[in-house]
From TrEMBL:
<protein>
    <submittedName>
        <fullName>Winged helix-turn-helix domain-containing protein</fullName>
    </submittedName>
</protein>
<dbReference type="InterPro" id="IPR017162">
    <property type="entry name" value="UCP037266"/>
</dbReference>
<dbReference type="Pfam" id="PF09904">
    <property type="entry name" value="HTH_43"/>
</dbReference>
<dbReference type="InterPro" id="IPR036388">
    <property type="entry name" value="WH-like_DNA-bd_sf"/>
</dbReference>
Length: 98
């Protein structure tokens, strides 16, 4: 059965938010490494988290320049992050991630 673009987009956003919140991948390059996403897709996915009311914020490292820092999830909104953790294998399978 083919998965809809809506579902894959939703799962991609959930997975990126989970990667950030778990500390697994907190930068664009780390997200790219963890998922195989192109840079632009990773950046667009980060921007789209707000559409799900997931409050994702970039924290600049003090004293650093050129966007040195990391992303943090400040609030999950209506999303249950425990559901994501419990269904992580299904999410990754739908997205084709190892």
């Amino acid at each position: 059965m083919e998965t809809s673009k809506t579902k894959t987009s939703f799962y991609r956003r959930l997975y990126v938010a989970w990667l950030i919140d778990s500390g697994t991948a907190t930068s664009v390059p780390a997200i790219m490494d963890a998922t195989g996403m192109p840079r632009r897709t990773a950046q667009d996915t980060l921007l789209a988290l707000g559409e799900l009311d997931i409050d994702c914020h970039f924290e600049q490292q003090s004293g650093e320049r050129n966007n040195a820092g990391h992303y943090v999830i400040r609030d999950w909104g209506a999303i249950d992050k425990h559901w994501i953790a419990a269904n992580l294998q299904q999410i990754k399978a739908v997205l084709g991630y190892p």
